Amino acid sequence: MTNVLVCIKRVPETSGEVMLSGDAMSIDARHVGYTLSAHEACAVELAVQISKESGGEATVLTLGSPDAVEQLRDALAVGCSGAVLIEADASAFGPADVAAAITEVIRARGAGGSSVDLVLVGNDAADTGDFQVGVRLAYALGLPVLTGINTVEVRDGLIVARGAGAEGTEVFEVGVPAVVAVAEGGIEPRYPSIPGRMKAKRTTIDTVTSTVEPRGPSRVRLELPPAQPSVVEMLGEGPEAAQAVVDLLTRIGVVAK
Amino acid sequence: MTAPVIVHVETDSRGATETSLETLTLARELAARLDDAPLNAVVVGPVETGQLDLLVTQLGDQGVTVLYAVAHEELSAYGAAGWATGVISAVEDASACVVLAAGTPRGSEIMAHVATRLDATMAANIVEVREIAPLVVSRQVMGGAVLELMRVESTPAVLTVAGHAVEPTPADQPTLPEVRHLRPELSQADLVGRVVRVEAGEADDTSALTGARVVVGAGRGAGGADGFGDLLELAGLLHGALGVSRVVTSLGWRPHHEQVGQTGSRIAPDVYIACGISGAIQHWAGMSSAKTIVAINIDPDAPMVTKAHYAVIGDLHEIVPAINEELRRRPPRGPPRAAGGAGRGGPDHPPGGHPAGGGRPPCGGR
Ligand SMILES: Cc1cc2nc3c(=O)[nH]c(=O)nc-3n(C[C@H](O)[C@H](O)[C@H](O)COP(=O)(O)OP(=O)(O)OC[C@H]3O[C@@H](n4cnc5c(N)ncnc54)[C@H](O)[C@@H]3O)c2cc1C
Ligand SMILES: Nc1ncnc2c1ncn2[C@@H]1O[C@H](COP(=O)(O)O)[C@@H](O)[C@H]1O
After folding, report:
1. Do B333 and A256 touch (CB under 8 A)?
2. Cα–Cα dist B169/B290, whole Å
3. What is the pLDDT of residues A101-130, one digit of tens each?
4. How far is CA A5 from CA A117, B116, B309, in A?
5. How far apart are CA B160 and CA B181, in angstroms?
6. Helices A133-141 and A95-111 meet at what angle, rounded to 10?
7. What is the pLDDT of residues A206-236, one digit of tens each?
8. Which of A5, B138, B141, B154 is deepest in the core (most CB within 10 A)?
9. Where are the beta strands (DSSP E) in chain B?
10. pLDDT band for position B337 (50/70/90)?
11. pTM of the model
């Protein structure tokens, strides 16, 4: 039986232009939806598969505002069995603070009899991209950690994890419990089913508070990168433009004169 | 003398990797602003003698004064914890005040371990050092769509450098780095989580994509798994590589290692030809460093079209075959030479202004 805890973060879903808040300390997300990182969606899928195979639990956890329940319910809808909200202002928490707060919850749950064999996180959060919560969490818990992992199997207490390396697929093995930071690319997240959605609505979210005094993320402010002057030059329409394209490629030196 | 700035250098068969050279260039400019602090480098793991000579030359060109070669019989198979111990042994020997690595999967992972163990602040994917007293960096967040100015006040400061944010350039004055060999004490925990084997066959070779001078990008507009023939031919005719959007990998049309973007590869080719790609910011994050961007799209209002340098409007399945035919008539230039360090042209990155004084530099007080 493998019990998995998977950590996710609610982030603004931006695919077009991004706007900043008036004080330039955050993204203006009033007109966009919210999502989680693609890596975390894969981590949720792995958590569901691994726990189902072994008859264990898959618990999804986030540190964030009560609105983040939306992301927890999405994870419940695809098969997680329980959800924990650490209610806090995520923007006041730096990566070390998030790791400390999650550690606190894992310890408290362990003391209460629900132990965890595998902690999954995303390789990097879609908004802050700090690349460190998983590693900091592992050190705080005194557990081994693997990052950049695409697939995970757990057999007889052994975690076999695979990630992309320069010379091929790299295979890692560590005993449970461990922390694994998942990167997109090894697994396709499933879509929620209607019964899944219904069940997610009925599941009680375990809401907790944290005693961690956050040191904060050391943000001075946000800036938009300098806009590239938009001076698109039209080379034409349809196949007739082929000549102009090849002329351009010749001019910039990728095609011989 | 000011405490050194040290760079973890990743190597491949050609010596220091391109992103490590970029990191060294940024680190050298930072060191110069820190009262001419020495620039040191560290390589961890087995290094062949011939390669060490090559590294000494390459790192000398970058102005490195001391190269730490950290080796141990247990540091043969890669594992982040052991590698971090190797880096930390050099950081401590040098009393370094700033530690940098390229923002690659490995560099990010090792630096996360280093920062955690040294109770240091880590700023990931920096593109520039804005101020040095106190240290303020700008770094890519939201997949590169936004820059965050972040203060890093710990000693050491731990930084990873975003790929292709800096053009690698040699130092004005080459140096002859002194090589110091270190053999760190490894703990039991350092030996956990190492690579136990590499499975060939499924080689996830992103280097063809990240090293290519020409990349043909393909998105949903390709239409299906069988819609890539002409696009692959175009890539072949230009001695380039194929890169794809996430829609393409999610639909299983092409493998994930070809994905470009926030959760794929970041590339900086001379030309990116985006065919049937809308240009979402997560995709843009991966290819905005291309020197020339050509968009081929049926929609003249697609962001890729409006943000590109050049565009052709129409169906890629008509346009790409026509380009291929035109190219077959005019043979392309031979395969690209390996991109060699400096002189690739491209935008200049000014080193930024001098510190306005006041505050505490990260290396101050030593
Ligand atoms: C956290 C997160 C991470 C992400 N990471 C990535 C990433 O790493 N990389 C990535 O690419 N995306 C990523 N995405 C997804 C991204 O937001 C977009 O959904 C994706 O890039 C869109 O792919 P597309 O351009 O192929 O498809 P679409 O947006 O559907 O665009 C298709 C384009 O093709 C054009 N077209 C259609 N038919 C033709 C034709 N016959 N000829 C010419 N043009 C045609 C259309 O006009 C349109 O512009 C991420 C999203 C999130 C939330
Ligand atoms: N506020 C949060 N709540 C829960 N998990 C988080 C939070 N922030 C980060 N994480 C997890 O840590 C991973 C890495 O985040 P980061 O180190 O910030 O890039 C994310 O992909 C999440 O899985």
Report:
1. yes
2. 18
3. 999 999 999 999 999 999 999 999 999 999
4. 8, 22, 46
5. 24
6. 40
7. 999 999 999 999 999 999 987 766 689 999 9
8. A5
9. 5-8, 11-12, 15-16, 39-44, 64-70, 98-102, 122-132, 135-141, 146-151, 157-161, 178-182, 195-199, 214-218, 241-244, 271-275, 292-297, 310-313
10. very low
11. 0.86
Chain B from 29 to 68: CB within 8 A of any A CB = none
For residue A41, give how far its alpha carbon lies from the nearest alpha carbon of chain B (Å).
12
Q: By the 8 A CB rule, do B64 and B179 touch? A: no
Q: How many residues does chain A have?
A: 257
Burial letters A9-19, b for 16+ CB under 10 A, else e:
bbbbebbeebe
ipTM score of complex: 0.91
Q: Are B213 and B332 in contact (CB under 8 A)?
A: no
pLDDT tens digit string along B38-55? 999 999 999 887 899 999
For A228, the closest chain B residue by CA position comes to B307
**Are the CB atoms for B66 and B31 separated by under 8 Å?**
no
Report how far apart, in Å, the C-alpha atoms of A193 and of each of A50, A53, A79, A223, B8 are: 19, 19, 9, 40, 47
Q: How many residues does chain B have?
A: 366
Look at A254 and B207 and tell me if their CB atoms are within 8 Å. Answer: no
Which ligand 1 atom lies nearest to the CA of residue B260?
9
Long-range contacts of A66-74 (CB under 8 A, 24+ apart): A66/A207, A67/A10, A67/A34, A68/A9, A68/A10, A69/A205, A70/A10, A70/A34, A71/A8, A71/A9, A71/A10, A71/A34, A71/A35, A71/A36, A72/A8, A72/A205, A73/A200, A73/A201, A73/A203, A73/A205, A74/A36, A74/A192, A74/A200
Q: Which residues, numbered 115 to 144 in chain B, qualify as contacts with chain A under a Cβ-Cβ cut-off of 8 Å?
A: 115-117, 121-125, 136, 138, 140-144
Nearest ligand 1 atom to alpha carbon B302: 49
